[in-house]
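Quick question, first post here. What does this chain look like in 3D?
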Amino acid sequence: MLRHKKTAAFLMSLLICAAAIAPSAAFAETTEAATAAQTETAGEAQTEASDEETTDAADDGKIVSGDFTYSLNSDDTANIELYSGSEVNVTVPETIDGHTVTDIAKDAFIGTEVETIEIPACIEYIAGENPFLDSAMLREINVAEGNENYSSQDGILYNKDKTTLLYYPMGKRETSFTIPEGVTSLGIAAFYDTTLQELTFPSTLTEISRHAVSYNERLTKLDMSKTAVSVISDMAFTSCTALFEFIFPEGIKEIGAASFAGCGALKEIDIPETVTFIGQNAFAATGLTRVYIPPSVIDIGYCAFGYDEELKPDDSFVIIGEYGSAAQSYATDSDAEYEYANNFIFRSPDEADAEEAYIDMNVQDYGDFQYGTLDGKICITAYTGTDSVVEIPSEIDGKPVEIIYGGAFFQCPATEIIVPSSVKTLNEISFYMCQSLQKITLPDGLETIKNQAFNDCTALKSIEIPGTVKSIGEEIFFGCTSLEEITVSSAEGGEYCAENGVLYNKDKSVIMAYPAAKKDKKYKAPSTAKEITISAFCDNIYLEEADLSSVEIIGNYCFESCSKLNYVKFSKDLTQIGTTAFYNCTELKSVHLYDKLTKIGDCALGFYYGVDPESETGGYTDLPVEGFRIYAEPETYASTYAESKGFELKSGTFEMFGKNVEKGFIYTLSAIAGVIVLAVIGIFTGKSIKKKKAAKEENTENTSIVENDGGKENNDEAE
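> Answer (accepted):
Ran it through. Tokens below.
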């Protein structure tokens, strides 16, 4: 995106929202310049006031009376707009020119040299945008006891019941302060530019306003873990230049715009798993060189991480997060229209840990191999040879080789690799882009295969996973375009199994990987299957139909680029469909979804990657599949997705034999079928009655004959 336009707009918004309280959000601009400008303005006002011996009304409705400029409220009370006198101890008047003074406006004492201010009992309103900002000599604000709205303690301004701390004077010379228990909120710029080196927050605190603790150049540590604050407001800790440790509240959800911008000493930060939003410039111009962003974060603003004082990106900045998360998206976030583009290094947590560990491994040569020691275990870190068949040593320096390090065989030219029985772990991307690899022997005894271990091994057609494996990471066969079959050995102790070439966990509740070159046109998930992991079916070009009638969770990218897939039977218990799960499935023209579905990721259904017909440059972008239709009931998550993406929505249907049938049509068929059934029953009943009648008549006739014969015999006997 146009970074300079976005940045300018953002900085302007910061200046606008901060205009009443002076601090600028542009990191290169100093507060001294702003203070000087305000002092000059105040001086001019003071000169003008001294030249006037009588009260004058200005064109803007403000009235100058002695050292004060005021305006009138609708009820004829006075609002103090500006103090322009030279007194260092100032009492706000109870009345001015016969008007009761009830208000103190936002600019009233900004940039003055006042040392103490007395607030009378008649004051009902003090502007929330801190009227005392940049009064560097102000050390004490006192409120008369009879005031019904405000109070003071030790020269600090509070609301009446002391639940809000409004202003801690800049001129106070204490180096530490504990905010009293009972305070629930901090006002705008409440602790702006103080001499404090330590600040303790109460457990009762729930709200911290913008600029609340900004420009405190002596604060080094801040701990908010015991507070109940859920939102760190915009610019709350901006330019606390000595701050090197900050502990977030346990339930924090949002970190506002520029909230830590300019905190140059802040080199580490632990973002809690509860955070969902991080605003623009939140950590710009800090000392951070890398950051872990938890998967709970779903929205990250422009320039939030990796930007300096001039908002220029540092391409060496490392973003650590889960694959498919907002963290990964931010690492390469871009917008051609605004010339905005991030190019940060992205690592998963495991990858990041591995990189740090590599530095401490003391890597050495061993023939065509390089190795080091990781957690006391021998680890193969690289292969530099060119042999077509590579047998990894089982022992080096008298110790067993137990780990294959991430990327150790990157682009290895071998056609066959033999892994010894000593090896227990294959780290991330261990055999990445071994494009000549046709056969790899994995030993029974292997326990762990981490993320993307065999990525882009394009010549590999089959692989046997040892039955001893207890942990398998994500996308281990991504890009293995020739892979036709995955099997699991008969060895015991592991957590995985395979059936018909497909990899599952032990109880088949999770579908792990479906080979990209498996030629079956139809797939039916086991009745036990509840989840499909990330990219499991990705890039299979043969699969046409998938019966997922038991699956409740479909992960990110699951069926991406399954170009022939034209029918999917979804479960009525399906709750989630991940990001781009069916992206580039251009033959899939419709889906039937149910009301338990509560999450559909971006471009999960109905989109493909193609040339934008409206683009002047012919650029590629996400495009909707022509004629894509969603069958779902109104007011469901599925119907909302359809409407938001502009897809046709059909309701009042149900799925029968793979077809979506309108319920009304079925009701009609049912009625007709009912009539037919009744008619058939009538026919058979009629026939039955006739048969029974005929049988009865025949039976009656036979009975009469028998009775007559019997009578005759009886009579003969009597005779």
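The helical segments are 3-18, 31-51, 326-331, 349-359, 637-645, 663-718.
The two ends are 127 Å apart (CA to CA).
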